[in-house]
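Discussion board: Methods & Data

I've been asked by a reviewer to show the raw model output for two of the constructs in my manuscript, not just the figures. I'm not sure how much to include, so I'm pasting the format here to get opinions. Each protein appears as its amino acid sequence followed by a line of discrete structure tokens. Is this the kind of thing reviewers expect to see in a supplement, or should I convert it first? Here is construct A:
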Amino acid sequence: MERYFDITPRQKEQFAALKPLYEEWNARINVISRKDMDSFEEHHLLHSLAIARYVRQNDIAFGNVLDVGTGGGFPGIPLAIMFPETRFTLCDSIGKKIKVVAAVAEALGLENVEPVWCRCETLPGGYDWIVSRAVTDFSKFFPLVKGLYSRGIMYLKGGDVHSEISECCRQCRLSPSSFEICRIRDWYEEEFFDEKYLVINQKALPLHSPKKRNN
């Protein structure tokens, strides 16, 4: 972790506590496969924190973030540790996974995490950013969340992501220029990230505030 990020002693303590917490919960509720648990830092922490690399690299004000299909809390929990000033809502349609998220957040003292058991399309919106980790094809994901955010989407995805985004642009009538695709291997040395990408789709922000009409 410290090879790639400058973190405080408190964050170091929280990241160190994560694997034991998930091992304890995994014994009761299977939220992470055994294979992934053996590579927990690489497959879950570093993968989730690729979003943090992009945010810091581009000096983005993260604001209010919704993690869609968070599962056991990824990427939301690691991001909440890294950005304690940001409010994270972690939603999933499977109740037992949200139970784990709530317990882990409480154990870590993460007051900036709100676990929500629901489907994302039932939420009222008002988020700055959407984050997610490969819950579905992007062309299916985008219609679910398009009314929920004001700034953009950061989506962790593997495989032939360029073809997937091209198809999404065709189906959802999006401009290819609205997408940025970052190869995570450019940030991390581990081979696991060879075919892992961070897809960013940002909404254009107005250059000036709208002029007030004279009544």
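Construct B, same format:
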Amino acid sequence: MTTDNQRAVVEALLFASSKPLTLDNLADASGIDKAGLRSILSALQEEYASQNRGFSLGEVAGGYQLRSDPRFSEQIGKLFAARSRRRMSRSGLESLSIIAYRQPVTKAEIEHIRGVDTGAVLKTLLSQSMIRILGRKEAPGRPILYGTTREFLEYFGLRDIESLPTLEEVTELLDAETERLSDEARVNRDDDESFDETTERQRD
């Protein structure tokens, strides 16, 4: 198989997968050795970055994945506006941030930092597969220990847990998400009011 064909095979695999592919995944599917794959992946990353593409090849959750450019998040959001997606509330983001930076961590430790009950939030994060139970702490009552998951890394586009942003960046993320949720709620409220006015006119 020529080098160009090898590159094409790797691109096809990355394009076809909805999940990050590890070197083992790519090697098993392509028959290319890992050294060759590393060279191909590095070349593809440089090529995409230099050509102002609408996507890039990122290292995410221990693997590689084609990801859309954040510059076009607004347009992409409109395209998929009708689809249901996993939404993150500010309380969810705050709790998730604590877990990410302090894992393994208990519910009591999270609540001590946030100052509010987190039972419902933890249940939601577990159902979304953003966190997982790591075991129990060797302490009175043996409380449950929580940590983040591979899905957490995928959701935030992180290569590994060491790639977490700084706390200042996390604060900015929380503020941006809060503003987005407020704008969304305002739009929904305006839509509801518009619907009520239209209905009232039809009755008249």
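Answer (T.O., handling editor elsewhere):
This is acceptable in a supplement if you add a one-line summary per construct. For B, something like: The radius of gyration is 22 Å.
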